[in-house]
């Protein structure tokens, strides 16, 4: 039967919409890959594998982790930016994703435009830790001490890392001058802190908590905006004398830009359900992490805020571009 061009167009549109609905309903129909842009065995990899196991169970389909380490997460991130936007290649990111734009002169992707947010996963609070001999029992006393002896207090950092920026950010907001001592590894930083070679540093719960509990280090505050459920008695830096200060390692899940909304919505709902499951929450809490299931819109806003914040910090600290 003859059909007018307009009828043909309408028929095609209906067919495409129907096909899209079927595709969305059928997702996933094959293995989903979560690219982790860091080496296997690290903190980001462990959390991603927890999530992959939860998604595998919820989606009734295999979700695997693919480690693509290199260039401070740039290698794996570029791979996902260029992957088909079909929901079968995802990216598990952490704080460097929002720091790299201000640390590198040129990136092979745009950290905001080339990805579709799915959900935040967790926050890793940091301790502001000092050697027990330091005559400062809280953040206000530490600031007063630093102001009385400009540059005399040593803060351990890993050069160019998120804790380097966190330290510079703290000194700037507290209006104090401290001497940043660069280390190549967290283990050496902690050793020098416990022996009194440096006076303070910022470090995550996993690395610091055993030494704080043993009394070899003293935790003054937690760096997140709110107190951590892991150690709720510890005040935040913001409430202890540096209003507005917030710093943590965060983890989140992204898809390539232009991934169909039906698929990212499916992934968001499933991810949030996994994060709210008691056994998964307990796994994260044991690691010193606070689960933070979120909407895609919230994660998008958070990414923009974090990127803008660290751009200002890098410029103020005059950290050279790589």
Chart the SSEs and their pairings.
Layout: H1 5-26, E1 32-36, H2 43-59, E2 63-67, H3 74-81, E3 89-94, H4 96-103, E4 115-130, H5 139-148, E5 154-158, H6 162-174, E6 179-183, H7 186-194, E7 200-204, H8 205-214, E8 218-222, E9 248-256, H9 261-276, H10 278-286, E10 290-291, H11 296-317
Parallel strand pairs: 1-2, 1-3, 5-6, 5-7
Antiparallel strand pairs: 3-9, 4-7, 4-8, 4-9, 4-10
Structure keywords:
322 residues, 2 domains, single chain, 11 helices, D-Maltodextrin-Binding Protein, domain 2, alpha/beta, disordered N terminus
Calculate the terminal CA-CA distance, rounded to whole Å: 65 Å
CATH topology name of the largest domain:
D-Maltodextrin-Binding Protein, domain 2
Major β-sheet annotation: 10 strands, mixed
**For the CA atoms, what is the radius of gyration?**
23 Å
Which percent band covers the strand fraction?
15-25%
- Which structural class best describes the helix and strand composition? alpha/beta
Number of β-strand runs: 10
Mean of the pLDDT scores? Answer: 88
Question: Stretches where pLDDT falls below 50 for ≥5 residues?
Answer: 1-23
Shape: globular
Number of domains: 2
User: What top-tier CATH class of the largest domain fits best?
Assistant: Alpha Beta
| CATH architecture name of the largest domain | 3-Layer(aba) Sandwich
CATH superfamily of the largest domain: Bordetella uptake gene, domain 1
Helix and strand run: HEHEHEHEHEHEHEHEEHHEH
Task: Tally the helices.
Answer: 11
* Share of residues in helices: 40-55%
